[in-house]
Amino acid sequence: VMESLKGINRGSLRLAVASTVNYFAPRLLAVFQKRYPGIALRLDVTNREMLVQMLDSNSVDLVLMGVPPKNVDVEAEAFMDNPLVVVAPPDHPLASARDIPTERLSEEVFVMREEGSGTRKAMQRFFAERGIEIRHGMQMTRNEAVKQAVRSGLGLSVVSLHTIELELETRRLVILNVQGFPDRRQWYLVYRRGKRLSPAASAFRDFVRAEAAKIAAPIAAV
Ligand code: PGA
Question: Its domain of life (predicted)?
Fold first, then answer.
């Protein structure tokens, strides 16, 4: 065991994660780094479209994301639940309603992430599958901006539960009880098919498979 530990306790690892994954990725890295202090870690945080480009150009070891690509030849392993929920400000008229029919959302305006966002893609897929048209309000390139916009009354949005832990705790945002939600998606560990993973990358993959869900599962019950 000591021998193999020595083997992976050096080298470098380049990770890239979706902006939504960034809400829990540092917790994983903290545990991993403690175990393998000799591995130099580099983390890029960006949206889905950029992650797909990085996979395509082979410029990253491993990617954590919510919506793996279909047009790049990758291995994608689900490692944790990623529930998507509808968020509203606490004073929204629907805040205390139960079992809101999904179609009711077509009367609301939605704050949107940019084209290229995995969250946006997942959200559009959800409504398209149900034949529901939603009204697009303002568009913004950051989860933080979306949350502030929803809080300020600019509209509802659909976000990963992982991104709103603090807002739920402090009741700055609430989750609406809408039929079909939470949209039960998964987080994926993704890398190019056939890529020879370095010992550091393999160690991280094994670590995510075995422990990510224990370390970072979303706290709020939905
Ligand atoms: P994004 O992240 O919305 O920032 O692209 C989520 C994802 O890849 O699913």
Answer: Bacteria
3-state SS record for 75-90: EEEEEEEEEEEEEECC
Summarize pLDDT for 136-162 with one digit per residue, the tens: 999 999 999 999 999 999 999 999 999
- Say what the ipTM of the complex is: 0.95
Report pLDDT digits (tens) over 27-50: 999 999 999 999 999 999 999 999
Tell me the C-alpha distance between 66 and 188, whole Å.
6
Under the banding of pLDDT at 50, 70 and 90, the label for residue 7 is low
For residue 132, the enclosing domain spans: 82-184
Query: Residue 140 belongs to what H/E stretch?
Result: strand 135-140
Q: How sure is the predictor about 9, in pLDDT bands with cuts at 50, 70 and 90?
A: confident
Q: Out of 53, 70, 117, give the residue to mutate to test ligand 1, the one with the largest number of ligand atoms within 8 Å of its CB.
A: 117
- Nearest-atom index, ligand 1, CA of 119: 3
Total residue length of the chain: 222
The verdict on 180 and 89 lying in the same domain is yes
Residue 82 CB less than 6 A away from ligand 1: no
Provide the sign of the torsion angle of the four alpha carbons 140, 212, 70, 54, taken in this order.
Answer: positive
